[in-house]
Amino acid sequence: MKTKTLKKNKVNVVTLGCSKNIFDSEVMMSQLKANKFDVEHESMDDDAEIVIINTCGFIDNAKQESIDTIIRYAEAKSEGLVSKVYVTGCLSERYKDDLEKEIPEVDAFFGTRDLPRLLKTLKADYKHELVGERLLTTPSHYAYFKIAEGCDRPCSFCAIPIMRGKHLSTPIEDLLKSAKSLAAQGVKELMLIAQDLTYYGLDIYKKRNLAELIDKLSEVEGIEWIRLHYAFPAGFPMDILDVMSTKSNVCNYLDMPLQHGSTKILQAMRRGITREKTEELVNEIRAKIPNIALRTTLIAGYPGETEAEFQEMYEFVEKMRFDRLGIFTYSHEDNTHAYNSEDDVPEKVKKERADKIMELQSGISYELNQLKVGQQYKVLFDRVEGEYYIGRTEFDSPEVDNEVLVKKADGYLRIGDFATIEITSADHYDLYGKIV
Ligand code: SF4
To answer: CA quadruple 70, 73, 74, 75: dihedral positive or negative?
Structure first.
């Protein structure tokens, strides 16, 4: 057995899955640091005594990636390369009993709302005074900003409510305190996230309160961009568009997963909205905010999806011309409502359909990007890569959307700063520009 000098009290946190998991890891790391642990995120040193894996349990691929990561660290433990391995997050919440049996090398498994218990296991205390505090793992000028946990929606394909529980909004005053603390640390952009952003407030304020929250956040000094992710179409609170149209630091950007373009499939998915109503909503949003960038997510191969229904979705994408679009192939998730139906669309057909939609979208994205050539945009620079500075406009969220590339030879740009850039050329997903 290879032995290695492991750093006592050093914790390596590994995060899988979505931005909500990143947020949870950052909160956990802040608590660990306050308890005098030396904590790192996805450390390459491999000298940490303790590893905590924050898993994802969303769909097949994500689950497999989480299991592979747990096994990798379990093997490292049996080789003496790490002393303790703890697992938390969605996969652990969903399959704790099975995982305990199958991977006994893991010291303990925790759920998605188990941070105090995890800390106790490490002989640490949960420090309430730190509520809203985080150790950022993103570049220091932007941060994911989770405004609520869980979801009350009945979407038939989705296992998230099983893993994340009922919708629970974070009170506005706690969110404002957290936003001010982030701004004081130099954060300029907040990505508002939740399972269903538009449900915000219905539990604790008995009304949809997202508009008031955004309005108040837009007053926080130093916050230059507020971006909205994971809006739900049914019952969409139009008043947030009033805030978006009047507050210059609320990005003209909206991520709203729509899942499909056929009313029959939308009803089977229990999405509470029809194709017609969806189009009406998109048109209303575009009428209110003409240059808004709309991002959406779709699913190909839902049980019973016929070629004709897929064609309906294809025509929907062709007609609506979304600015940004991602698509998943349907994953047959146990304990969801859809699990009662037969997963009858072959994987090969699911993939072919998803590829067809992305090919269509790539052409739409190319055409829409050509319209940006010659225009000037406020760009936030995230990193340097090779001979380029890489940034984003207000119409692009990190990791998932278009990027703006400016040659280093063109002049000096500081990472984390804004600059005005004139777009000189564009391809399918990237824009090229020069400093104005
Ligand atoms: S809104 Fe629907 S798809 Fe989104 S997390 Fe909730 S149940 Fe899942």
So the answer is: positive
Q: How far is the CA of 419 from the centre of ligand 1 (A)?
A: 37
User: What's the pLDDT tens digit per position in 363-416?
Assistant: 999 999 999 999 999 999 999 999 999 999 999 999 999 999 999 999 999 999
Handedness of CA 264, 333, 282, 308 (dihedral sign): negative
Amino acid at 366: Y
**Which pTM was predicted?**
0.95
Tokens of 200: 């915000």
Residue 9 to residue 33: CA distance in whole angstroms: 10
What atom in ligand 1 is closest to the CA of residue 153?
7
Model pLDDT for residues 196-255, shown as the tens digit of each residue: 999 999 999 999 999 999 999 999 999 999 999 999 999 999 999 999 999 999 999 999
What the block records as the tokens of 282 is 């998109």
Task: Report the pLDDT value the prediction gives residue 3, as an integer from 0 to 100.
Answer: 53
- Gyration radius from the chain CA atoms: 22
The per-residue DSSP string of 370-384 comes to: HTTTT-EEEEEEEEE
Which DSSP string corresponds to 402-413?
Answer: -EEEEEGGG---
Q: Is the CB of 361 under 6 A from ligand 1?
A: no
Joined tokens for residue 428: 């399918």
Give the residue carrying structure tokens 């990143």.
22
Tokens of 415: 């990472």
Instruction: Give the number of other Cβ atoms within 10 Å of residue 69's Cβ.
Output: 20
Residue 212: burial class (beta carbons within 10 Å; 0-12, 13-18, 19+): middle
191-to-141, 336, 370, 393, 433 alpha-carbon distances in Å: 11, 28, 27, 14, 25
Classify the phi-psi angles of 150: left when phi > 0, otherwise alpha if psi is within -120 to 50, otherwise beta: left
Q: Which amino acid is at 349?
A: V
Percent helix, strand, coil in the chain, to 5, is 35, 25, 40
Distance in Å, CA 357 to ligand 1 centroid: 22
Q: Residues near 206 by Cβ (< 8 Å), separated by ≥ 6? A: none
How far is Cα 198 from Cα 186, in angstroms, rounded to an integer? 27
Exposed/middle/buried for residue 231 (C-beta within 10 Å: 0-12, 13-18, 19+): buried
DSSP string of 293-349, one letter each residue: EEEEEEEE--TT--HHHHHHHHHHHHHH--SEEEEEE----TTSGGGGS---S-HHH
Rounded to whole angstroms, the Cα distance separating 189 from 141 reads 6
Q: Which two tokens stand for residue 111?
A: 């759920």
Pocket test for ligand 1, best of 151, 260, 331 (most atoms within 8 A of CB): 151
